[in-house]
Design a protein that fits this description.
The chain has 296 residues and is an alpha/beta fold. The protein is built from eleven helices and nine strands. 34% of the residues lie in helices and 16% in strands. Helix 2 crosses helix 3. It is elongated, with a radius of gyration of 21 Å. Bound molecules: S-adenosylmethionine. S-adenosylmethionine (SAM) binds next to helix 6, strand 4 and helix 9.
Length: 296
């Protein structure tokens, strides 16, 4: 597939062309894939409506000129405008499931999926959570997946952004999920119910780190990434407020990414348990409800 339009290009031609194009560009990977080939495959899956499990025979598939043009245009937007593929396709994957995304939510990539798949073990023990809160729900991927894994539990997703909640609603429909959505600035509008688990991937980027992020991140909402100057504003509020919303023995699980060292330094009296993930990701802490009174 040269730069001039071919009438008989195959899917394989496009994938190899796009891979070369991406390799020679400066694009940053980190929004669902970690290599140029997978980026090209994601674009092709979208334009050609292919299932995720295509085999190598699909490489011979002939593209018509409209498909080829569309694929080239998307690849160009990826390179020139540095738009992450999930925003070009309105599709992201979380825990093996498809989610609708647009630029009102971040692209799902939280390591919390692994913890949910393991049913919060060993921390949850034999307990059967009745109520789970996903604070800062965005696309609602965490809330929806948690509700699938715990069908007996009532799961609530909270976000301050009306636009993000519109995306969350779309995903609830897509997954036929009964997650409840609440628009709220953290806990301010959350009914004082007691939860067994509060899970959260809040914004946690500081202003300096924000300024240094690759251009791909500029397409994500700043509200979803930045949290005050040091990245910890929301997390510190959660540490102060979560206790009132947790049952005795309840768990607070929060992702803080690179801000974890600063958090640990600021709260030396809190017995943070820093979780480890087989599939990568760090900076996720777990605290028990009883620990939260130790911060003052
Ligand atoms: C990092 S995104 C996480 C989205 C989703 N949970 C995920 O893991 O993909 C953080 C979310 O927090 C929301 N948010 C920001 N400030 C908030 C606040 N004060 N109260 C509630 N939600 C807030 C943003 O709108 C954004 O959707």
């Amino acid at each position: 597939m040269s730069n001039s339009m071919l009438t008989q290009a195959t899917l394989g031609d496009f994938l190899h062309w796009a891979e070369d194009y991406f390799v020679t560009s400066e694009i940053f990977y980190g929004h669902g894939t970690d290599n140029p080939w997978d980026e090209a495959v994601m674009l092709a899956m979208h334009v050609l409506s292919l299932p995720p499990d295509i085999d190598s025979s699909a490489m011979q598939m002939q593209l018509n000129s409209q498909q080829e043009q569309e694929l080239r245009a998307l690849a160009e937007r990826r390179v020139v405008d540095r738009i992450p593929v999930p925003y070009l396709t309105n599709t992201a994957w979380f825990a093996g499931e498809r989610y609708y995304v647009n630029q009102d939510v971040i692209i799902p990539r939280s390591p919390l999926a692994e913890l949910i798949s393991q049913h919060f073990q060993p921390w949850l023990g034999d307990g059967q959570p009745k109520r789970i809160l996903d604070m800062c729900t965005g696309s609602a991927c965490i809330a929806i997946y948690t509700a699938k894994e715990f069908p007996e539990a009532e799961v609530t997703g909270v976000d301050i952004s009306e636009d993000a909640l519109e995306v969350a609603k779309k995903n609830l429909d897509l997954h036929k999920s009964n997650v409840k959505l609440v628009q709220s600035d953290l806990f301010s509008n959350v009914p004082v119910d007691k939860y067994d688990i509060i899970i959260s991937n809040p914004p946690y980027v500081g202003s300096q780190e924000m300024a240094e992020l690759p251009p791909e991140y500029n397409h994500e909402p700043t509200l979803a990434l930045q949290s005050g100057d040091d990245g910890l504003e929301l997390t510190e509020r959660m540490l102060r407020e979560a206790r009132n919303f947790l049952n005795p023995g309840g768990l607070l699980i929060v992702e803080v990414g690179n801000s974890w060292e600063l958090l640990a330094t600021k709260y030396p009296m809190l017995p943070f348990i820093w979780l480890e993930f087989a599939h990568g990701g760090d900076g996720v802490f777990l605290l028990h409800m009883e620990d939260l009174c130790l911060q003052n």
